[in-house]
Amino acid sequence: MYFGKKAVEEIPEADTMIWSCSNEDCNGWMRDNFAFEQEPLCVHCSSPMISSTKMLPLVVNDHPIKMLKRGTLI
């Protein structure tokens, strides 16, 4: 028998739209497809957030409220 470590599966990553906190003293950010407002405020410090991109593991958010925001729910 072999009791070695299991092989770690690579998680695919992609350039992902995010919102980053505009406050230099705060490191808050969130994925765009998990934001409920068109222009969200930081949940940590309530500062405005800036749209940008970040290389992140792929995650799908198919929650009905988010789909309604994007206009994809019929």
Report on the structure:
With 74 residues, this protein is mostly beta strands. It has 1 helix and 3 strands, in the order E-E-E-H. It has a 3-stranded antiparallel beta sheet with strand order 2-1-3, with no helix packed on it. Strand 1 and strand 2 form a beta hairpin.
Order of the strands making up the biggest sheet: 2-1-3
Proportion in β-strands: 25-35%
From the alpha carbons, calculate the radius of gyration and give it in angstroms.
17 Å
How would a textbook summarize the main sheet?
Answer: 3 strands, antiparallel
Helix/strand-derived category reads mainly beta
Kindly state the percentage of residues in helix.
under 10%
Query: What's the rounded overall pLDDT mean?
Result: 84
Protein name: Cold-shock protein
InterPro entries: YdjO
Organism: Paenibacillus chibensis
Pfam family, one: YdjO
Brief descriptors of the model:
1 helix; 9% helix; elongated; mainly beta; Cold-shock protein; 74 residues; 3-stranded antiparallel beta sheet; 3 strands; YdjO
Describe the structure in brief.
The protein is mainly beta and 74 residues long. It is built from 1 helix and 3 strands; from the N terminus they run E-E-E-H.
